[in-house]
Amino acid sequence: MKPTESTEFTLLPDLAVRTLGGAVIWASDEAFAEKENLILPAAATHQAATFGHKGQVYDGWETRRRRRSHGDAPGPDDRDTAIVRLGVPGVIRGVIVDTAWFTGNYPPEVSVEAIAVQGYPTAEEVAALDGWTTLVARSTVGGGTPNAFEVDSEERFTHVRLHIHPDGGVARLRVHGETKPDPQWLRAGPFDLAAVENGGRIADCSNRFYSHPQNILMPGRARVMGDGWETARRRTPGNDWVLVRLAGTGVLTAAEIDTSYFLWNSPGAASLTGFRPDGTEIDLLPRTDLLPDTRHRFALTSTDPLDEVRLDVYPDGGLARLRLYGTLTEPDNDVS
User: Residue ranges of region Disordered (predicted)?
Assistant: First the structure.
């Protein structure tokens, strides 16, 4: 299997990223650099000739050099492994094994597997499980590059297992896909139908020059401007927008449009348009002026079941978060 040049799947959320609740729960070895670095949200960085007590400091996961008897090179079946519990279970559409800054110490080959488990098993229990599904067959990768692989599977997974053959370093592991949380949780009462952790996702957007629109659906409050979505300065007529696919068909009762940390680059106004399952649209929130660095909350009065909502911003700018609260009428998440 060869890396793909297409990265369209990166519009989907990274199910493994730490800010979504992902965790690296187990690794066979992390002698040089910690496994937890694999899922940090920021791109890997590097400072040459920066040495710690384990050698050059790397922003990634790096294992020791494997040796066989008498110091011989590793065999063809030798490998190191890290297991990631996804922040939200989901259907995986693409994987990026990023070897940024690893140029003389990256693994020549990688493979990726996944599994779905119920409940909260320990790391040791997950590591001992059989029945893993291959997402990326053993494949050659390059050093210092984001190696992207498309995944062809409709299964729902909770954990991902990265193998590196035979050893070396990987900066980041990105696991892009569609969230599929437990529907029992979604039926418990009103919730944010746009949130990534509940199954919402970005379906399309006009511009993602400075940052990914998926950020506005992430958990918690933004901490800095870079935690949100910001478009380039518009020099042509029109406005920027983002289309949100809800967790399922539902009725919305409230919305929050948060411009926190956007002081001189927040939109001047915004509106919300809902889309019924048959594709027809309804005005949820008319064009409304926004303030910078403010959490704006609006009651919504429509009783129409919707499955998508478009947020229009005028003319451009940045937002920290978008929340769309309501209840599902037709849950479409499946744990099977």
Answer: 60-80
In this structure, are residues 33 and 80 in contact, taking their beta carbons and an 8 Å threshold? no
The count of domains in the chain is 2
Q: How far is residue 206 from each of residues 231, 239, 276, measured CA to CA in Å? A: 8, 8, 21
Domain enclosing residue 213, as ranges: 183-330
Q: Which of 127, 158, 179 is the last residue of a domain?
A: 179
- Answer yes or no: do 220 and 162 share one domain: no
CB neighbours of residue 211 within 10 Å? 16
Structure tokens at 61: 């996961």
Sequential DSSP letters for 96-113: EEE-TT-SSSS-SEEEEE
> pTM score, two decimals?
0.75
pLDDT tens-place values along the chain, 336 residues long: 778 776 789 989 999 999 888 999 999 999 888 999 999 998 998 887 777 767 777 789 999 988 877 678 788 889 999 999 999 999 999 999 999 999 999 999 999 999 999 888 889 999 999 999 999 999 999 999 999 999 999 999 999 999 999 999 999 999 999 999 877 777 777 899 999 999 999 999 998 878 889 999 999 988 888 889 999 999 999 999 999 999 999 999 999 999 998 989 999 999 999 999 999 999 999 999 998 888 898 999 999 999 999 999 999 999 999 999 999 996 555 444
| DSSP characters over 132-191 | PEEEEEEEE--SSSEEEEE------EEEEEEEEES--EESEEEEEEEE---HHHHTTS-E
What residues are paired with 274 via a beta bridge? 282, 309
Q: How many CB atoms lie within 10 A of CB 161?
A: 21
Peptide bond before 331: cis, by omega within 30 degrees of 0? no
Q: How far apart are CA 260 and CA 294, in angstroms?
A: 5
Which of 147, 179, 211 terminates a domain? The answer is 179
Statement to judge: residues 57 and 132 lie in one domain: yes
Peptide bond into 190 cis (omega under 30): no
Other C-beta atoms closer than 10 Å to the C-beta of 19 total 18
